[in-house]
Amino acid sequence: MTLISRRRLATLAAAVLGLGAVPSGWAQAPAARGEPIRIAMIEGLSGPFANTGEAVFRNLLWATERVNARGGVKLPGGARPLLIERFDSKNQAEEALSSLRLANDRGIAIVTQGNSSAAASALIEAINKHNERHPAQRQLFLNYSAVDPALTNEKCSYWHFRFDAHADMRLAALMSVLREDRALQRIYLIGQDYSFGQGVLREARRQLGAQRPDVKIVGDELHPMARIKDFLPYATKIKASGAQAVLTGNWGNDLTLLVKAAREVGFEGRFYTFYGNALGAPAALGDAGIGQVVAVADWFPNVPTPESEAFYKAFRERFPKPEDDYVHMRMQLMVEALAQAIERAGRVEAGAIAAELEKADVTLAGQRARMRRADHQFQQSLAVAVMDRQGTPGVRFDVEGSGYGFRVIRSLSPQQAEMPHSCTMTRF
Question: Domains along the chain?
């Protein structure tokens, strides 16, 4: 691409996204030169789920580049750039806590994590205790993916903000499609054996009982997380059960290996998933997934708006490798909300930022979302999409160069996706 065409694309992307800025490499505003505002990303960057951690880093990096390209975070003492510092939790709660202590030793006030609800729960508890004991060095926790509903209900904390829809919200969106599948009579529930996976299956049983009591649950099991290398025994049981569909909250390799095994044993039923739209799952299924894999997300590349298209094209320009194709709108909104809150607070201090984050209301690429003050649960639109071949109506973009993408079949507004909470917030 020539420099001129790159600049034209940058100008178009900035105009459509409504940001007044462009990604790194296209900067048209003076870069911030003050002391960086550091953000500790605590995530599994090694082991079986390393690919999910790296996908998070790309998203956060791109989001901070966008803020920095427009001049950084404006503060009374001058603009300051955002900087991501990586901490490898190895997908273990104890390692996440060690990373938190290290981040605190380095004086980092803003912490972000997401790819484990167990780790998120441990971090919330640790930050609560730390902030009570050390009010002059308080920390703030931004959660982009840990979706155990308890985290913004009975375990809610003033210091924790969740930017993903929690599991019950995601499941309700999936159920809005599943309940209309009148041919479905038998379903298999399977998930990872930890708080999130357990919660998904528990809520699935409840929502199925309430909305589709005619559907028989022919399998209901949990498996060890990140320890199963061969899912053929599970896939064999699924097929033998006579299930017409599988519902799972599995993510990462635990999802990819499951759907691959299901294909190998000849299972022809539908997969209702939380995360079946990337990280190898579409390629693993191939044509067998067309019309059969359903996923729910806050956003999909094929959301049919010009703003969404420009947003996705800008990401692919920044990260052109097919294996890097995994962009999350919510992570972009999270960083925008953080930058907004710091500017309004006028300083980088956890308590001051939290008070402003409670009022966050951000728009990016036509997607608007707000933080609910009562429980710190982000309220945003949700979409349900089905896998299809790239080039079919509604599937302009594929996933990870696989030739398969996801067509949006149901869109829920933030008001439609919203659910009640049981949080009793203690404020500081």
Answer: 3-165+304-379 (3.40.50.2300), 168-297+382-417 (3.40.50.2300)
